[in-house]
Task: structure prediction
Amino acid sequence: MKVHNLENNNSVLNNFISEIRNLNTQKDSMRFRRNIERIGEILSYELSKQLIYSYKNVVSPLGVKKMSIRNNDLVLCSILRAGIPLHQGILNYFDNIENAFISAYRKRSSGDDFEIIVEYLASPSLDQKVLILADPMLATGSSLVAVYDTLKKLGNIKQIHIVSVIAATEGIEFISKHFPEKTELWIATMDYKLDKKGYIIPGLGDAGDLAYGVKL
Result:
């Protein structure tokens, strides 16, 4: 798996990351969602450089210009509910692609142990498509693997790009064992520790709760 970590280069991206981490700034849920969306836009721009393009003639009022245009074989799938703002950011840059949505949540059994439950899926065929899989927090990686196990039944996926805002090294190592070798991971920043419940440290908290309110 190839990992693209954008925090290695100084840019305005770091401002957005600092705000979603900041205990005071993240109290503004609308700003939190917008920052996740903007991070998704930046990650999408970088990801777009790795896609396949074809030359097409574009007719303007004054002539014809041969231009390199992205092939339209993408499907964007986001994990509900935290993935919605990230989905919108990616969709802002890939506005004419197909969309899929899937649910995945942690069901705790005893102590800190949990299993991932996938209950909802709405998706087009993924056969011979490039899949962009969006999940803002890559912690243990268990959700992404469970989701992939469901999605791969929908066709022979041509290529997978995973887009996350914050990824833990442990989660990256885990998914690299379960996704195809040529999978590419796009992240805005990396953290190096999980707590005993599997949450990223320092992370930012629960992205879904911060975006849409605390759940039961």
